[in-house]
Amino acid sequence: MKKYLIIGNSAAGVNAAVAIRTNDKTGDVKIISCEEFNSYGRPLISYYLNGKVKSENIYCHDEDFYRSMNLEVLLNTKAEKVDTIKKEVLVGLGERISRISYDKLLIATGSSPFIPYIKNLDFNLQKNVFTFLTYKDSVKLKEKITKNSRVVIAGAGLIGLKAAEGLFGQVASITVVDLDNRVMASVLDKSEADIIQAHIEQKFISFKLQTSICEVQGENNVSRVILSNGETLNCDILVVAVGVRPNVVLAKEAGIKTSKGMFVDEYMQTSVKDIYAAGDCVESLDLLTGESKVFALWPNASNQGGIAGLNMTGIKTRTPKTFAMNSISFFGLQLTSAGIINNSRSIDTFVDSTKNKLRKLNVLNDNLIGFVLINDNQRAGIYTSLINDKVGLSTLAYDITSKDIGFNVYSKQERTKKIWDYKGGY
Amino acid sequence: MSLNFNTPDFEVIRNENRCIQCKVCVRQCANTVHFYDEEDNVICADDTKCVNCHRCVTLCPTKALVIRKYPLEFRENSNWSGKVIKEIYKQSQTGGVLLSSMGNPEPFTVYWDKMLLNASQVTNPSIDPLREPMETKVMIGRKPEKLEFDSNGKLLTKMPPNIELKIPVMFAAMSYGAISRNAHESLARAAEELGIFYNTGEGGLSKDFYRYGENTIVQVASGRFGVHKKYLNAGAAIEIKIGQGAKPGIGGHLPGKKVGEDISATRMIPVGSDAISPAPHHDIYSIEDLRQLIFSLKETTDYKKPVFVKIAAVHNSAAIASGVVRAGADAVVVDGFRGGTGAAPTRVRNSVGIPIELALAAIDQRLREEKIRNYCSLIVAGSIRNSSDIVKAVALGADAVYIGSAAVIALGCHMCHSCSTGKCNWGIATQYPELVKRLNPDIMYKRLVNLISAWNHEIQELLGGMGINAIESLRGNRLMLRGVDLNEKELEILGIKYAGE
Amino acid sequence: MGCVFMLCKDGSKKESMMKKIYAFESKCLGCGLCEVHCRTAHSKSKDIVKTHKRENIASAIVIEENLSSNTVSYFALQCRHCENPKCIKACISGAMYKDDSGIVLNNKEKCVGCLSCILVCPFGVIKKNDDGRSVSKCDLCVGSCEPFCVKNCPNEAIKFLDEDGARALI
Asked: Of A184, A117, A202, which Cα lies nearest the Cα of A335?
């Protein structure tokens, strides 16, 4: 009986467990998680904050799922060390330390919030500063806010803005601070970012851009933040959401080859035999640029987990190359993007925008390499698959930059083939 | 022309409480009557284009639509009716010949409705077709004058070729071109399943339909479209078309825009060229010429297939039919003035030819008098509407009937009389692929089978009621008919007694 | 990839031939009645007029126009219920799942309308509902013996068949 151990109980971990159990009915599958909750939809924490998702609905699976799949889950359990020689993982369960041996190990430790240096900021001391990455963060934040809270959010990226949306309507004011000149700078160009920003500003959420928090004041509670441009903001709640970093300390210490994230081969195996890794803590090859980078994305983690699981049971499965993809809504405005979305000289960019709607397509050498859609995403998946399958645009039935896309973009033959034969995949 | 006198014939009434703006009507109307006004989120209609084909009404999921006669009235005038006036407006605007489709709609007497059938009471019991055998099979073709047998009882007489109909109904000639490929396929498949025949019409036979050959009658008309040896041998019988009830005296006309790749190949004419059949056959100017054509067709098919000759019902049909039989035809087809068409000049359609009932009675009578009735079968066409029309036709002397209009109505025709526009919303009289698609042969052939099977049941009931157990026993039995509301002359021509006599 | 799995509760692999909706392009008229009946089937009122006047439901079947050089034709498209669905992988809320019979379903209670599924569906057949909180997708009208689009297609262009049955028709 094979022993499988999975560190991490989120998208990658659980999908790996399912894949393992599907192909190995008898193996021992253990999942350890340092969190106190069972696997939950991490992107749902902002929906929990504003009450759109109730606590009972945040979990990906019910108890019955783990039981019926015969998966053993150890919560509140932190993996301290991986002994690659003895094939054991040292885990801390509160005060107790124990060892769990494995035949195949999956490291799916995800990422942690990045905390920039801010003078006087101390998470251990100050009771009104938060990060926003886990369900626990969201629970704590929800308990703390009042109708009178003046909230400052550091970071106008995806997490910062979702936090702002989650808090909207429950607090007195929300101010979002970001060093960049636009919101979601890593995902959007200025023109698209402006649409998002203007939409959010309608909700009386204010932005302080091209500046950063350099200092906070207050001992047990932050009462004021000082910006690098000299402005001062009163603050009852501070949320730091400037980005995430892969959790790779455990892997590094075990001698696994790591850069920003862990390196894995095309079968999701790390540089150490029998140790696999998946999700936000690994680097993957970008289909479009060929670069190795971390894709901190839920679908990516699910896919990689699933593939890692298959490989761990001995079913050799290659990981397809991936690319950035985001679908997110802010106050009813839908933003969908994928691939390379920045403008550059070598890329042809086609923008089609009307009031509140935008479609931007980036084309390079007869291939679609990226798109941004705002409030116009009903058929977004067709664009995504054009990128994914590297479809030559000249082979399509019409020029996709000139009209709305549909499945009719494929020739009848191609269309029929897809409808009859497509099975899905990673 | 800036001033247009034309006013709509129909009005589209939309119940706004039920309209859900689903746009099914917009998408389905090939005449672009319905359109969506995005600004006001309403569906509107351009009444002037409506032909009242009911496609939108039938498909509207909420039954929000009604089409009515356009309520605009002219001052009452029995002579100058609105219809007459509007025809003048149209012609004075276009300078063209008025074109119409389907059969003569004018209020001439329908003699079928003036004749009543008999039923047995007491002395000669009626027959229950559900309990006793009842034959509706007929054989079409020349019958020998007498049968000779050898001493062992073996038949010595050489039997002329006959075709067997399980039910005395056939689908009338409608060419591939006039009607769509899918309509043809439906007719062919239904004929095959029913054990009857469909007729290619004058447009030849698409190679894909040769497989239905055993149930096909191939037609040879004045245009000779698609006629070649293989074609003549492909069917079970050959029909020479001299005339057509809807337009006696003139030939068919298929506009070039209906002549696509497949029709071009089938008709053996260039794509896009008009297919105009001459009014006469240019090789027939006498009965002797007809005889030559009949026998050259028989020669080509090795005397194995009966040859029919189809004529329109006109003033001296009886004499013409006699000549046709003497020329060697194995069956005479007579098409009455109410027979349908894809396109005919309105004046011809509405004012040329005679009622089929009278023509049939006259021809049958004449052939009997001349003692040549058994030389041929007599098939009638031209608005056979139901099973009692068939039974009455047989009692008047017909062997079988052809149905055209009734068949296309089963296929979805709503008698909008707009075949000639080529934009049939039901996929019947059109060649536009997106419209042809609307007629799914898988569905529609079954409707034809249903219709004819239902009629067959009814025929059996009517026969049984008269105490007759085979339709061939009814043929020419005019004692089974009585007239009502007819004058002496009409009764004389029909050869029937008045009711009560 | 030879092996696929689905989130069956018993963890078993399903290989049985499941019935799906097949739309035959050669027969599709593009009338849009399937869309109307799809919306109605998934409405509260189950009444066509009320559904369209009062409820805002996206149809889970899409009619597309197909422009070729000389004619316009149409085809209907809906969820293919992939063996290994990308939408389930992408779903952040666990709302998208595969039931024991292989049907990919969306649990509206759990769906938050993030549209990640729309982003990855290669057929583009998941639709956002106007409430912005959920998506509509084909559920094969589970519970009724035949999907409503199939039942109401005026030209029998949409059929509910297993793969062998469908292949036999082309």
From this structure: A184
